[in-house]
Amino acid sequence: MLRRRNLLTTLLIALPWALLLTLWHQYPTTHYLSLLRKETDENVTSKALLNGTSALREEGLPSCIRQQQSIRATPKVIQNYVYSRPPPWSDTLPTIFVITPTYTRPVQKAELTRLANTFLHVQNLHWVVVEDSPRRTNLVSNLLEKAGLNFTHLNVETPKSLKLGLSWIPSHTPRGTLQRNLGLHWLRDSFSNTAPPEGVVYFADDDNTYSLELFEEMRYTRRVSVWPVAFVGGLRYESPKVSPAGKVVGWKTVFDPNRPFAIDMAGFAISIKLILEKPQASFKLEGVKGGYQETSLLKDLVTMDGLEPKAANCTKVLVWHTRTERPTLVNEGKRGFTDPRVEV
Amino acid sequence: MKSQLFSRFLLLLPWVLIVIIVLDIDSSRAPLPALAPRGGGGGGGGSGGARPAAARAPPQRRPEAALPTIYAITPTYSRPVQKAELTRLANTFRQVARLHWILVEDAAARSELVSRFVAGAGLPCTHLHVPTPRRYKRPGLPRATEQRNAGLAWLRQRHQHLPPPQPGVLFFADDDNTYSLELFQEMRTTRKVSVWPVGLVGGRRYERPVVENGKVVGWYTGWRADRPFAIDMAGFAVSLQVILSHPKAVFKRRGSQPGMQESDFLKQITTVEELEPKANNCTKVLVWHTRTEKVNLANEPKYHLDTVNIEVLQAQELPWLESLENELMVVW
């Protein structure tokens, strides 16, 4: 009799503690511990809020921020909106891996910011940012953590010899090649060929403009899909030529339409499966003529009749090859005028 | 006796904790510093913050209604990159709660491209249009004056019949700038006129108001620092109250000098002492004055145009294509 009562009491005591533990695991209190990329919604929101109010000096440091002061300082008005985080991860939707090479220049943070603002709308997107630098910079690290996206941050420096020497026409020096190859290498390292995930790889330069429709078009690529790109090749847009049967039969470009793949980097996506099946396929560094960089990768992966035309049989423009003007920083002078600690 | 009390306490404690957590989660999605396993001081201060949050739970139950609306007035004009700029601007604005976008075209009539864009934009949007008179289209003259004034007029007209107070904040968003999401958090708490730094403007990495003791005392700018408000169009926001209580405050055309647009407007509605510095006392750059390169369309053929009509930009607004006749390469 006594035993049973003791058992009951112990059970009654243990039960609420167990409940407490489960609640504690589920809800935002654990955001201090979990620095995992696949976080729950609440974790991401709370992280974004706290990170958003970090003090200026910490911009230069890794994100060890003084949350307590910030919490007391910020007004309560803002905490209730549920934006600035991506839609919840779905286990059934194919993942879109976006590889973005980037390099340090004044507009870098602005470009990555507006890119992140676009990517936050897309479900199951994993952003692979590859910096052209010897070390991962704090600017990019902080930005990626604040953004709330699923990301991977890599870096590889392009040797000076490659930056200068490859072609006497500077506009045709393939840029971002090493970085894109590193992105592909990471993918091949992270996923095995025997159990490839459902997904696509897309190379997104940080100054282009992407509509949200584009990502849904590319998501279900079986091998390699293609679509028109605006503002390339000196045209309003370049696009693949699609036969009435829905097969790609050529290229509507003025600049060298006889290339095997006369398409811009932003105009195609490759399925992960194909990337893993052909581990030798990567962008060539040397001996690549202007406009042939995309060909150097695609020729090892697919032939023209294996391409899948998207965007309503390549009749809609969903991506624009915009370029951002270099800002005139004449007033900085030789030694720089503005405070270098303020991150721009 | 003691053991009974002890066991009762053990029983009650976790339930009390559970109730507190659930209440907090229900009332607001805010983080709970009280339960964080961080240092004592922070935890103490944090828990102090959490209690008032729980007490304020009832008003926060309708969070969307309490949030002031942000009105973004964007003048836009037809050129190749227009659709691209509007697209990525919309992608940013859609991440912001309660943002009402006022798009004003520099055109005599609503263009199809923008109308279609607005229909599928995915956020509350007002589509206006007002053409700029040709005599004001000379280089060196301020641009988009008529469009911004049209946006202001629409706002005033819309709110004239509604009772005060009208929580709302207005800012001028050019379609080629870049906005971080943090900026909107900062400007939403504007009481009168708030200011912050702008990146990549004035020939410098950034320009900003100089702040001392929470008040603006000067301007850190690369160009004409003697202006009364040496700030860029992207560097300030005005509360709706102020706009409505100054019905005659508009952007000037007559007698306007280049670069004085912002000053001429702001001095009609506020003084430097009243400005509210944001972005951590104007030390963080949350908006960048990016500009997009002009697109190279040299290869566009004059004849044998494409068989499909794809919308990228407005074809009829490109008279300068005619001048490329001599330079056109091989056409189809």
From TrEMBL, chain A:
Catalytic activity: 3-O-(beta-D-galactosyl-(1->3)-beta-D-galactosyl-(1->4)-beta-D-xylosyl)-L-seryl-[protein] + UDP-alpha-D-glucuronate = 3-O-(beta-D-GlcA-(1->3)-beta-D-Gal-(1->3)-beta-D-Gal-(1->4)-beta-D-Xyl)-L-seryl-[protein] + UDP + H(+)
SUPFAM superfamilies assigned: Nucleotide-diphospho-sugar transferases
Binding site for UDP-alpha-D-glucuronate: 101-103, 132, 175, 180, 205-207, 321-323
Site feature Interaction with galactose moiety of substrate glycoprotein, where: 238, 331
Subcellular location: Endomembrane system; Golgi apparatus membrane
Binding site for Mn(2+): 207
CDD domains named in the record: GlcAT-I
Glycosylation sites: 313
InterPro entries noted in UniProt: Glyco_trans_43, Nucleotide-diphossugar_trans
Mode of membrane association: Single-pass type II membrane protein
Cofactor(s) in the UniProt record: Mn(2+)
Keywords: Glycoprotein, Golgi apparatus, Manganese, Membrane, Metal-binding, Signal-anchor, Transferase, Transmembrane, Transmembrane helix
Pathway terms, separated by semicolons: Protein modification; protein glycosylation
Family recorded in the similarity comment: Belongs to the glycosyltransferase 43 family.
Name of the molecule in the record: Galactosylgalactosylxylosylprotein 3-beta-glucuronosyltransferase
Species per Swiss-Prot/TrEMBL record: Falco tinnunculus (Common kestrel)
Automatic annotation (TrEMBL), chain B:
Gly residues bias locations: 38-49
Top-level EC class: transferase
Keyword annotations from UniProtKB, A to Z: Glycoprotein, Golgi apparatus, Manganese, Membrane, Metal-binding, Signal, Signal-anchor, Transferase, Transmembrane, Transmembrane helix
GO cellular component assignments: Golgi membrane
Subcellular location, record wording: Endomembrane system; Golgi apparatus membrane
Binding-site residues for Mn(2+), renumbered to this chain: 176
The organism's place on the tree of life at top rank: Eukaryota
Site keyed Interaction with galactose moiety of substrate glycoprotein: positions: 207, 299
EC id: 2.4.1.135
Catalytic activity as recorded in UniProt: 3-O-(beta-D-galactosyl-(1->3)-beta-D-galactosyl-(1->4)-beta-D-xylosyl)-L-seryl-[protein] + UDP-alpha-D-glucuronate = 3-O-(beta-D-GlcA-(1->3)-beta-D-Gal-(1->3)-beta-D-Gal-(1->4)-beta-D-Xyl)-L-seryl-[protein] + UDP + H(+)
Topology of the protein relative to the lipid bilayer: Single-pass type II membrane protein
Binding site for UDP-alpha-D-glucuronate: 75-77, 106, 143, 148, 174-176, 289-291
An annotated Gene Ontology molecular function: metal ion binding
Signal peptide, first to last residue: 1-30
Gene3D superfamilies (alphabetical): Spore Coat Polysaccharide Biosynthesis Protein SpsA, Chain A
Active-site residues, as the UniProt record annotates them: 262
Cofactor(s) named in the record: Mn(2+)
Region (Disordered): 36-63
Any GO BP: carbohydrate metabolic process
UniProt xrefs under Pfam families: Glyco_transf_43 (PF03360)
Biochemical pathway: Protein modification; protein glycosylation
Predominant cellular place of this UniProt entry's protein: membrane
Glycosylation sites: 281
Family label: Belongs to the glycosyltransferase 43 family.
Name this polypeptide is given: Galactosylgalactosylxylosylprotein 3-beta-glucuronosyltransferase
